Amino acid sequence: MLSDIEIAVNAKMEPITDIAAKLGISADDLEPYGHYKAKISEALIKRTANDPDGKLILVTAINPTPAGEGKTTVSVGLSQAMAKIGKKCVLALREPSLGPVFGIKGGAAGGGYSQVVPMEDINLHFTGDMHAITAANNLLCAMLDNHIQQGNTLRIDARRIMIDRCLDMNDRALRNAVIGLGGKVNGVPREDHFRITVASEVMAILCLSADLADLKKRLGSILVAYDIDGEPIYASDLKAQGAMTALLRDALKPNLVQTLENGPVLMHGGPFANIAHGCNSLRATKLALKLADYVVTEAGFGADLGAEKFCDIKCRLGGISPDCAVIVATIRALKYNGGVAKSELQQENVEALKEGLANLRTHIENIRSFGVPAVVAINRFGTDTDAEIAAVRSFCDEMQVPVSLTEVFAKGGEGGKDLALKVVQTIADKPSDLHYAYDTASPIREKIAAIAKSIYRAGAVVFTAQAEKGIAEAERLGFTDTPICMAKTQYSLSDDPNKLGAPKDFTLTVRDVRISAGAGFLVAYTGDIMIMPGLPKVPSAEKIDCDENGMISGLF
């Protein structure tokens, strides 16, 4: 059996100009990065702005196991299946982060015969977007520290710096650091922190900006520090937004690549859903809607995280709405949520599966609460038994939700045709009527409580003293009429990764609330969520190699 990277390497890719031509995009509207990837021109984005929109399909999931459950694979397979049934479809995905690639997850461009290619490029440097975001963020940090060094005319309080440096790599040693050591010429000593690039505010800004002017305005609005009187200092006070925009000019343009079956993919932006808003760029999604009759996109992790933020943040700020949501479930994840140990997930256990179905029930109910019709996709694994599959089908019948057994990993688009047909039928039969989990005009505590109680099923919400301080500061500065971006574990509906299944009436603890003024939302931190992950005991990087001919192995 071929590995994912072997399948990708053996794929017959088409020139990116041919992929673009399928969407009516001429070579003049491409900025090629080699033969198989390209940036889309600003001219095309502006020219298609008033064209009618296609139908938007959101792919989300139940709470995963630590190994992941193939949501991207299903997204890719569904887009390929749409082409198989004669539909003009574009796939809109996030870009992978190097952190998971070299950490616990490995590559993030799908798997098996449902992948996006060129897989090695996408999972490594791609078109340089991640590096540009890292550079822009760290330029702002460098300008901040330089200002303090060069006389500090803004009277910045070095104890109240709000911006972190970033790196697109899991490196726990950089979570907390002291900089400026070594004497006067090396800067002013202070405590500093790193976060992973995909959790940076600059990443969120790139993914929510409408155009270059909006990007520059948002970058200038980043809250970087406070002065010694407690008044806010923004990036615009440091005159940093212009140079940052210059670094991000090309990164703002969506990337065009292809699936293994030569379907078009717009891959752009990559915020995590457990510590950021978890969706690809708004620009890429909006452009895809102009170019195709159907657009398949995904939001990170379970529907309690990615799908909630997709609706409450991305759709609200972007004026878009999903026509259908696909909830990806796996037999192994359902058994895991039913209490089966990870080492025993390959063994049949219908009773534990039925216990874990409570998790799927919650996600179906949540998607319906947004006014969006749902379809359940069972991402089939070789260890799934007929009895287990029958139990999920029976449950979905009781819930009156369409269900499809997908085999896109093994069969590509052919293995997702049933899912594609059910999604198209659902869109035709059940019009979507998007509404949100909360009103942004509500008080901050009420918005957080609305998410915690209606989406997570918490019984109560507790705010630490630090969180209360953050809320008071947001209220003082006028950042109250904004969405909420929850930072929470992906493994549970609660803030405790050990509470599997469908916990209810638990207490959710909000330990901090931070202002992301440029992104346009507040971030509420819960549990022990880390904004700079660490590598596992045996990182994926140990298995990745490159031979003397440049052939990469072990990437996925």
What does this structure look like?
The chain is an alpha/beta fold and 556 residues long. The protein is 35% helix and 19% strand. It has 19 helices and 25 strands. Strands 1, 2, 3, 4, 5, 6, 14, 15, 16, 17, 18 and 19 form a twelve-stranded mixed sheet that branches. The protein has a four-stranded mixed sheet with strand order 20-22-23-21. Strand 1 and strand 2 form a beta hairpin. The longest helix is centred in the N-terminal third of the chain and has 21 residues. The mean pLDDT is 95.
**Helix percentage:** 25-40%
Q: Which structural class best describes the helix and strand composition?
A: alpha/beta
The main β sheet shows up as: 12 strands, mixed
Low-confidence stretches: none
Instruction: Evaluate the radius of gyration.
Output: 23 Å
Query: End-to-end span in angstroms?
Result: 14 Å
Per DSSP E runs of 2 or more residues, the count of β-strands stands at 25
**In percent terms, what proportion of residues is strand?**
15-25%
The averaged pLDDT comes out at 95
Shape: globular
Number of helices: 19
